[in-house]
């Protein structure tokens, strides 16, 4: 499953970077992850409840940050297992400061599915990818605006 | 194949169904989307509320200028209805293209809309027809315009504790309509489904299934056509699906071809 | 839960799990093994039976949903030792080979002939959209259905009671 | 001898039970105390079992036992029945396919089993299997055969780093073929994939193992095409139990198409487990598992070149193919791309020089083995695609080009059989005649004009031709033995005449849709001159039938039927002795007809029933003759049989969408003598649908991780009634000269000729509209056809 997207976030790159490095925020914005628990440097135990139409399931696995480049980006490796199948996603996230208040976030990666998900989900897989992408950015925007509001 | 265990409850009225849904679980109508996914264990509700025998959900009638279809009407009920054929042939034509005969005999319009499969046929039909989805929840009844109903992949404006009770569709004299479908050869879902309603004054509404994460009205195409222009590109701004049977590029092409075929059919 | 389903003219009561599918109620509980399971996705039609006289896929229906209804399976298609015209047609035209899809095919075809007593080839093929056969290439199945349509008076086909053990159960909507 | 039944379309005797719901398939059988098995399978194409936690699963209600690879390590893997060595003589690599993958080892395809849960109900077995926690270490995987031989390809078996099972070459020496090709005026070159398809018998595989302690005897009910072969393989190679302690029953079987020939791990496991637990154990596959675990078919990546001289005569054929074996070698797998494929590359043509270079590789996919046609469809696809493409390239008429290159007619009696460049000697053939008849049915003259008109519209037309020859009646044991078969491929039959003259026939050929209960009885009744009602056929039970090699390779009537005829001959020979004694004449004075022996030129006769009674009440009886009238025979064929035919497809292509509609499918087949035309036509129809299915609809889609992404009928496209036209069939009869019935076999023909005909038709349509693709990847989905035009 190919995952890619670009989105302009209304925040300076420093702010976006801080949020990306914060496990609480990360858990809130990464679809298919609902909680993160630090187990090692940049490695987390990840849990999720996913519900997408006919598919629902609880996933557990881990999330790790690799290739960390301060304010430039990192690679996000999410491995999730469930009864209906497993997912293994490696996503490269890159930040580009547009101006003092805007940051462009680009990601590009691939999620490998196995089990029932791979076998029976083909028909809607691109829709799922699109939906996850949209969710990711919407979550980020929401987290940002929450953050801004709390600052105000 | 067997589903996970769940509790089966049968509701005899809308009120009872809504109160049962408030305790959790999913509504079971024809079950032709829900049960297959539960058998594959992709879905595991704790309870199913069978709404299949609620008399209020049945029946097709006219109410003023609106055709009112009970949400529990099966695809076959609608395909075979003399009233639907007369007043809104689009729905009869579209319903006849869903699944296979056994699916049409059990699957319901309400169940299909609630499931909101991006490749199902009903969503494009209700969108093009400007239908209103009437739902009942703990706080009573509300009406959702079809254009607000589909919110994403398998996602709708329907809350978990609400039940679709009927679909109201405006019917206007002199309108023409069609549903043109290119079926995925294995599942027979729409790779592209294009529904068009053309009013007597020539204004068209155009909706697609199968093309994007969610069914949609193509407002750009409508704007172009309604101002006498060529249709222009289909699915602008939509995230186009791709799968083993149709890449993004091919899907968009098919959508354009099927739009043209639909326009010819209502010319 | 307890269900009571009239199967092939006989009232059958049984305790089933809530999740029991109608096809397993028929096969495992009642040992009516003529109804088959060929897929997991409601695609193949091997499990087709009649529910209150209408063809349905019994793998996509809970036994609970059939509670109080009437079900006809392939075992109920012959009456008093006399074959249903479709059963005759399938034999006459070699409409079956391994026989696995056959009960579902016959049940689907019976539904078609009730609605459309003299179907065209196209109508027959369209009606079989939900039934997969791997043996016959469908050629002789189409001919078998045409044979049944040609060799039976339309009213006979339309009124399944003349041929099957279909029992019309007054559908009672349960109140309190 | 009278002839009342042979050649008649007798309605099938087996139908009554199927149309009334009384067929009895394995999953319909319920034994007292029967338990249910469900397998825990690998979700990955390649992954190491790091650990298995059974605790939660074992605690589930209803669970009786859970076995893992460590519990069954002592059981051998399922064996391969055919050995093909490397061209340099190195022995074929035969990795063990364990019953269950033990901890520390790797699963090698999605669906490879790691544990089995046995519980009181199927539901509780499924529920508990989900709680078996397997810790996996996912490893890189390879699924496509051409990728498997790349230098950095993930290894399927560590000990075979090149992923090769074996390589093989066949035909004329490559130097001779190269030399011939160098002189060619035109070479048609085609690279293509003969894609992997799933047999998809409608009845999923099902097994019940049952052990009886008092007799120390096992019974296995199995959805199989050959009960005796399963018994042989399971006893001798897997479980190591004596054959007389095992009864294998193949009850009604819902289609096979090859996929139920093989011995599968689940068969041995339920049998073994029934003894461990002391109760019968049933396993029934669901469709999803079937996609992952049934042996698949085809899967070749090929580069083929056919050379022609300036006049259009074929001068050489050069082929390089990589064939996918899957992760393990299934029962007959090595034979399929080699001796069932390479030997058919002569086709119907006089090609003087032929060479094939074959590399058979392991991949992280389920095993590939014989699927309807097995090797012959791949050979025919290759040849017939080349012929139509060559015609397009050279501006020749495809039918004319074939006529020019056909082997001239030979009957195998007056004229000798035809010796090919690739080992086989065809028995009899008349190839021009079937193509001529096909062209007549098509109305070829008018078609080209119609096509030219259509080319101006959005609905273009194309015609595709395919003429084929196949090798059936498998097989002469000595020949296949020399080629690596580890079994004989004869057949056995017993004809038991009861004292009242009624006849029970026991055949080793299993029937699972082919109609043996009718055709075999037609033969027996005719040969004995008695009513069909007096004859019954028994098959599918190793305890009642002496031996059998099963049903595949269009062999049942040619081999199994011939064994029956041999027994009948013995019956009649002995009967004549009894009759002569009773009629007080010499045997030579008797003739047998209409169910009685008559003294020639007199009206003195004795009926078959009287002779039978005499044989069992031998009061007045020839001295020294044994009582009874019951004979067994084994028949080992002298040669393969060689059916042939011509298939023609007409398609319409929607230029805007690429959608292909099959408008006509014409098939003229010569399967030798025909016992029951209705059944033969039915076999042809079914084969056509499968061949068309491969051309237009079917094919597995593996992603780069070896995941099968279309493992259900929602995504794997099976041909349906509204995808197909009525078939137009005709027949020619060139009897087989070397078996007593003169039959050649009809089971696979339809699937062999039709695939290239359909693809050729689509290519032809596109060329008619100015597009000139050489190939479109099968299945020809709308998008692929549209791409070829844009």
Task: Describe the protein in words.
The complex is a heterotetramer of chains A (152), B (267), C (176) and D (790). With 152 residues, chain A is an alpha+beta fold. Chain A has helices spanning 13-20, 23-29, 116-120, 125-151, and strands at residues 2-9, 35-40, 43-52, 55-69, 73-81, 86-99, 102-114. In chain A, strands 1-7-6-5-4-3-2 form a seven-stranded antiparallel sheet. The longest helix of chain A has 27 residues, at 125-151. Chain B folds into three domains: 7-50, Uridine Diphospho-n-acetylenolpyruvylglucosamine Reductase, domain 2, CATH 3.30.43.10; 55-170, Uridine Diphospho-n-acetylenolpyruvylglucosamine Reductase, domain 3, CATH 3.30.465; 176-266, Enolase-like, domain 1. Chain B is built from eleven helices and 14 strands. Chain B has helices spanning 14-22, 34-39, 75-80, 82-87, 89-95, 101-106, 109-115, 122-128, 146-149, 219-226, 248-266, and strands spanning 7-10, 26-28, 47-50, 60-63, 66-70, 132-137, 140-145, 150-152, 155-156, 163-170, 176-183, 190-198, 204-209, 216-217. The longest helix of chain B has 19 residues, at 248-266. Chain B is globular. The termini of chain B are far apart. With 176 residues, chain C is α+β, with helices and mostly antiparallel strands. In chain C, 31% of the residues lie in helices and 13% in strands. Chain C has helices at 22-29, 85-92, 102-115, 121-127, 139-150, 154-158; strands spanning 2-7, 10-15, 48-51, 54-57, 70-72. In chain C, helix 2 crosses helix 5 (139-150). Chain D folds into three domains: 18-24 and 34-139 and 200-293, Alpha-Beta Complex (Aldehyde Oxidoreductase, domain 3), CATH 3.90.1170; 376-474 and 640-789, Aldehyde oxidase/xanthine dehydrogenase, molybdopterin binding domain (Aldehyde Oxidoreductase, domain 4, 2-Layer Sandwich), CATH 3.30.365.10; 490-635, Aldehyde oxidase/xanthine dehydrogenase, molybdopterin binding domain (Aldehyde Oxidoreductase, domain 4), CATH 3.30.365. In chain D, the strands form seven sheets. In chain D, strands 3-5-1-12-9-10-11 form a seven-stranded mixed sheet, sandwiched between helices. Chain D is globular and about 85 Å long. The relative contact order of chain D is 0.13. Classes of the chains: A alpha+beta (152), B alpha+beta (267), C alpha+beta (176), D alpha+beta (790). At the C-D interface, helix 2, helix 3, helix 4 and helix 5 of C face helix 1 and helix 17 of D.
Rounded mean pLDDT of chain D is: 97
Structural class of chain D comes to alpha+beta
What is the CA–CA distance across the termini of chain D? 65 Å
Instruction: Report the biggest beta sheet of chain D as strand number plus sense, adding barrel if it closes.
Output: 7 strands, mixed
CATH topology of the largest domain in chain D: Aldehyde Oxidoreductase, domain 4
Q: What ranges of chain D have pLDDT less than 50 throughout 5 or more consecutive residues? A: none
Q: Can you identify the CATH class of the largest domain in chain D?
A: Alpha Beta
Widest sheet: strand ordering of chain D: 3-5-1-12-9-10-11
Looking at CATH, the homologous superfamily of the largest domain in chain D is Aldehyde oxidase/xanthine dehydrogenase, molybdopterin binding domain
Rg of chain B over CA atoms, rounded to whole Å, is 18 Å
Query: Which CATH architecture of the largest domain in chain B?
Result: 2-Layer Sandwich
Global geometry of chain B: globular
Strand tally of chain B is 14
Largest sheet of chain B, in brief, is: 5 strands, antiparallel
Mean pLDDT value of chain B? 96
Structural class of chain B: alpha+beta
Question: Which oligomeric state applies?
Answer: heterotetramer
The DSSP helix count of chain B reads 11
